[in-house]
Amino acid sequence: MRTSQLLIPTLREDPGEAEVVSHRLMLRAGMIRKVAAGIYTYLPLGLRVIRKIEHIIREEMNRAGAQEVLLPILAPAELWKETGRWEYYGKELFRCHDRHERAFCLGPTHEEVITDLFRREVRSYRQLPLNCYQIQTKFRDEIRPRFGLMRGREFIMKDAYSFDVDEEHAKRSYQKMYEAYHTIFTRCGLRFRAVEADTGLIGGTMSHEFMVLADTGEETILYEETGPYAANVEQAAVPPPHACSDEPLQPIEKISTPQAKTVEDVCAYLKIPPTRLVKTLLYQLKTGDVVAVLLRGDHEANEIKIKRYFGAADLALADPKTVQSVSNAPVGFAGPVGLRNIRIVADQAVYAMRNFVVGANETDAHFINTNWDRDFTVEAFVDLRRAKSGDPSPRGGGRLREAKGIEVGHVFLLGTKYSQAMKATFLDQAGQESFAVMGCYGIGVGRTAAAAIEQNHDGKGIIWPVPLAPFHVHLLPVSRAEAVERTTRKLYHALQDAGVDVLWDDRDERAGVKFNDADLIGAPFQIIVGDKGLVKGTVDLKYRQTGQTRGLAPNDVVSSILHQLSPSQ
Fold this sequence. Notes:
Elements: H1 21-28, E1 32-36, E2 39-42, H2 44-63, E3 67-68, E4 74-76, H3 77-83, H4 85-88, E5 94-97, E6 103-106, H5 111-121, E7 130-139, E8 154-164, H6 167-187, E9 192-196, E10 206-213, E11 219-224, E12 230-232, E13 253-256, H7 263-270, E14 278-285, E15 290-296, H8 303-310, E16 315-317, H9 320-327, E17 343-347, H10 348-351, E18 356-359, E19 365-370, H11 372-375, E20 380-382, E21 400-415, H12 417-421, E22 425-427, E23 433-435, E24 437-444, H13 445-455, E25 457-458, E26 461-462, E27 473-477, H14 482-497, E28 502-504, H15 511-521, E29 525-529, H16 531-535, E30 539-543, E31 549-552, H17 557-565
Parallel strand pairs: 3-7, 15-17, 17-20, 27-28, 27-29
Antiparallel strand pairs: 1-2, 4-6, 5-6, 7-8, 8-24, 9-10, 10-21, 11-12, 11-21, 13-19, 14-15, 14-16, 18-19, 21-24, 22-23, 25-26, 29-30, 30-31
Helix pairs in contact: 1-13, 2-6, 2-13
């Protein structure tokens, strides 16, 4: 393809709207253009990247035995009401009505639609396992769409759904998809980790996120230094303490702590470390009930774990009025001693503590030498805190380390959540009706492209992994001399004939402009054709990743490029 014939509106300056590297560089490289908040047009360069990702996905999904379908974008409300997600999904669900006032939504995901297809078309266990996938535009009305293709309201996603006869077979399908995802992201040339994750709005019993590692990632993951365990920070488990304090119990005592509301204030006033304090967090469940969660002073609450313990769809810290009503004290002085008709649960680290400090449920007062087995009752000691770097691994693989990542894929073992709600059954070997056991598997296609840029860029622009590059080679003649034109044209056709994606910058521009655009666009290889080199019988091959350049005879260019592409094509 010639640059003069391709829509590549590159920009010299950084767009003011861009917040992250991938957004900035995709705009500058002429790959996307904003239509509205969270909605983008893919220009030719950007679409070429998308198509390459889709091609890799299709090959691996087909190889894993999945079948491609195309489900409707528009889904009737009745299907979503069967699973309860019409109300539960919230404001992110784009809702609309047709001319007959029938309610529909634009699909953010397609569990309901595919389950409806299954219950209509599958009758027998002989038709299972079944795995169907699609690559399609999805819609979510994000409250704050941002970061370009990272978090949009309209986006391209691969979603797949498996149906099996029982849990054991469903786990096999899940493992197939887990392995296929490893292959997909490896083929994309990305550095990534698969991490244990929460199931969120999709639901189910098990899930893994596939995270592209990047310093600019918005997600935090924790992984073992010496083992395979990895999890996102919301899901990462913390093992119970190895030993409990054996210090003798001291008499509980109320002391004045004027204006000391925070952990830092109390610890400074009492001259103790935060490991000697237990903070009491009062949460209000959606039912209206208030519960107390106890954490060591230096630990942070993990609300995903807390919701899971209470079986709550949602919860929030109690407002000051509720705190006052429940504890008879303002925020900052609540404690477990004397709390009435309140369920009290504690993080397992509290189990190991003795003679600790808690709020006294009284303004400007705390108890010292408090002990849970004497002064108040705890319903259960469970893992309720946010794991952090330096914590021991729950799998015994040393200490956890922290890294930043970008979620590009997610696999879920759904169980019978949707098949039971929608009565999606089949006849088993005994002739009895059974609910299909399901899994679902998503990949953000545009998000994968953006994550590749976040992981692979420098101050000049994008450095595409070879498998995702819109063009493998950027052909850059630096003058209009006849020999330069002739050599460039010959190389262009030879590369095309060899199946290499090549972009020929045939514009009447200065060499510096061409070089800057080439570095911005990020093709892995640049072939620079100049007068001086041709006098010596060479052209320059520049490697975008390293910036290194070496001379080649024009006749050796194609074989050299093919040799370097062969592992990636």
